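Re: weekly structure request thread

Next one in the queue (145 aa):
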Amino acid sequence: MCGSDHGLRIECADREVAPDWVRAHVPVEWVERYGQRLEHERLPKEEEERKQYANQVGSDGWLLLTALDALATPDWMKTLPAISTLRTIWEQQFEPREQGGRWRPEPALPAAQLINSPYDLDARYGKKRTTLWVGYTVHFSQTCE
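Done, posted below.
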């Protein structure tokens, strides 16, 4: 199983792949920006700062995907599951790079179809009345005889 660590490493089966490519294509400032997993508590507090941060993330992601699309990039890297997931999430959550790559105010798909976590591709947003969750919905039926 392949995964990525915020664009700083590409790992497959607990081994890092293409570290030289990553070093050559990832700007140094990304280490500070994305070196630690982002949790809600670390997001900027003000709404405008959050929008700016989200737009920066979108721009950075499109920059990485553009580098991956280059002819010099090995084909095997372009088809890694982590890269395919990143591309899908960016297409869903951000405007195309040609249009600025900003965070979409409204996602491209209904919430039930969006990838919500790169760690669990099948988890979806759910809502029933006032309860919201990311995960799964299971329906049970009961009959009496």
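The chain has one domain: 2-109. The chain has a mean pLDDT of 82.
Next request, please.
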